[in-house]
Amino acid sequence: MYARAATAYRRVDLESAPRAEIVARLFVRFLDDLAAARTAITARDVQGKAKAIDHAMLIVTELRAALDHGAAPALAANLEGLYAFVHDQLTRANLHLALEPLDAARRVMSDLGDAFAAVKNEPPASP
What we know:
CATH class: Mainly Alpha
Number of domains: 1
Structural class: mainly alpha
Largest sheet: none
CATH architecture: Up-down Bundle
CATH superfamily: Flagellar protein FliS
Radius of gyration: 16 Å
Shape: globular
CATH topology: Four Helix Bundle (Hemerythrin (Met), subunit A)
């Protein structure tokens, strides 16, 4: 019963959150997934590694799908390239139980998350 209520609460919370907040949460969750993948790789926990990296890949896929190439073509193209790089690094980490690709993916996504948070918290530009 409590699990169903918690799931319903999370769904309502997500559906009512502003888009910028959802994106910020995705960056945080991505970094959490990478920490879990790092722990699992170190422990040689293949199932835990796969679960964490799979979820991180889903986040990258969602972020890529949300890009608006019409509104900001150059920015969207740059972000597309960064997300492709991150996806490739996650694939390498997944296939080779390697930590270095996780570190590369973490650096990129951490920087992007910080940049997004800075822009999100800026006051709107004056006309």
